[in-house]
Design goal:
With 345 residues, the protein is an alpha+beta fold. It is built from 5 helices and 23 strands. Helix content is 16%, strand content 42%. Strands 1, 2, 3, 4, 5, 6, 7, 15, 19, 20, 21 and 22 form a 12-stranded antiparallel sheet that branches. The protein has a 4-stranded mixed sheet with strand order 18-16-17-23. A hairpin with a 2-residue loop joins strand 5 (66-71) and strand 6 (74-84). Helix 2 (113-124) runs antiparallel to helix 3 (147-162) and helix 3 packs across helix 5. 30% of the residues are buried.
């Protein structure tokens, strides 16, 4: 944990049946973790001189190379190199990348959502690490879709029914699906051996951000499996009066009754009839425990970064000093308009 030691991130490349430390070659490493993405991306540069390689030996990084980053023996990244530039630039992704590229065929009939995900994993050839119980029933056919697309579809349906949000990641070669935590964590950074660790939220760098209605949806139409029969509608007239009509069409997941359909429309309106209020916090001290999806509790700040904030994006910079850039949202943010929703099923 960051409170116990000064960060020392080591980069290893798998060669000749063993792991080789290449930290001395690595420059400007950054790991980008976004909640909406399945895969974490790692970039760095390796000193490479095309004219005088004899004096600057190349460590052998190539597409397909296995790469690992550890901090005092704790693995913080494990993946595969995707691209290597002539200038020595390197891009790697964790193994969730494979679920965004391959295509599979999958058909489920009145199956629980967690069982559908397990079948998807079997088709994609990836073990299941952890999946919560997802009782939502699904009847669906996916023809030539990426596993990540299927997983997004399933979790979107579950979220619309339960109101919960989920994170998916591939760790140790297995898929993990977890509910987003509702308890804030305290992240610590220890800057030097002779200094005590401190709460990173006490020392924020530059704060910027934006408020946007780009993702707002204040009207929902629910259709059946044939995608043409309208089974229900929901809207917020106060939001429509203020922001204009912005409508989305959603399809039922299986054999829902009218009460379930009504609840799903209400949940979709509650989730989508909101402004997107994001804040970026730059040059904050780094902590490996800060991943997308976690809650951090911030002290009062005039830019609105106060109280519990959901990390929806984080970039770790593993330089001589471990620093981060965060994108956060307030999970307690209210609706775009306070008037009651109208739901017709």
């Amino acid at each position: 944990m960051g409170s116990a030691y000064v960060d020392d991130h080591r980069f290893s490349l798998y060669q000749g049946g063993q792991w080789r430390d290449i930290t001395a070659w690595v420059g400007s490493p950054e790991a980008r973790d976004k909640l909406e993405a399945l895969s974490v991306e790692l970039t760095f540069s390796v000193l490479r001189n095309q004219l005088y390689d004899a004096g600057m030996p190349w460590p052998g990084v190539r597409p397909g190379s296995k790469l690992r980053v550890d901090n005092h023996g704790r693995e913080v990244f494990s993946g595969v190199v995707q691209t290597v530039g002539l200038d020595g630039s390197v891009t790697a992704n964790d193994r969730g990348w494979y679920l965004t590229k391959s295509k599979i065929l999958l058909q489920v009939s009145n199956a629980a959502a967690d069982d559908a995900i397990r079948r998807m994993c079997a088709k994609a050839g990836i073990p299941v690490g952890e999946i919560p119980r997802l009782p939502t029933r699904l009847s669906e056919v996916w023809t030539g879709d990426a596993p990540e697309t299927i997983l997004q579809d399933i979790l979107k349906i579950c979220s619309a029914e339960t109101g919960k949000q989920y994170k998916r990641r591939v760790k140790g070669g297995a898929l993990y699906v977890t509910e987003l935590p509702d308890t804030p964590m305290t992240a610590y950074h220890k800057p030097a051996d002779n200094l005590a660790a401190f709460d990173i939220t006490l020392a924020k760098g530059t704060v910027s951000g934006s408020d946007s209605m780009g993702e707002l949806r204040n009207s929902v139409v629910l259709v059946g499996g044939g995608q043409t029969e309208v089974l229900g509608r929901g809207y917020n007239q106060a939001s429509i009066d203020e922001y204009g009509l912005v409508q989305t069409v959603e399809r039922l997941s299986g054999d829902e009754n009218s009460a379930q359909a009504r609840q799903r429309i209400r949940t979709l309106l509650d989730q989508n009839d909101r402004l997107t209020i994001e804040r970026q916090v730059e040059e904050i001290w780094g902590a490996d425990e800060v991943e997308s999806g976690v809650l951090l509790r911030f002290q009062s700040n005039r830019f609105g970064v106060t109280g519990d904030q959901r990390v929806v994006g984080v970039t770790h910079r593993y330089g001589p000093t471990h620093l981060m850039s965060l994108t956060v949202q307030d999970p307690a943010q209210g609706r775009a308009a306070d008037a009651k929703d109208t739901v017709e099923v």
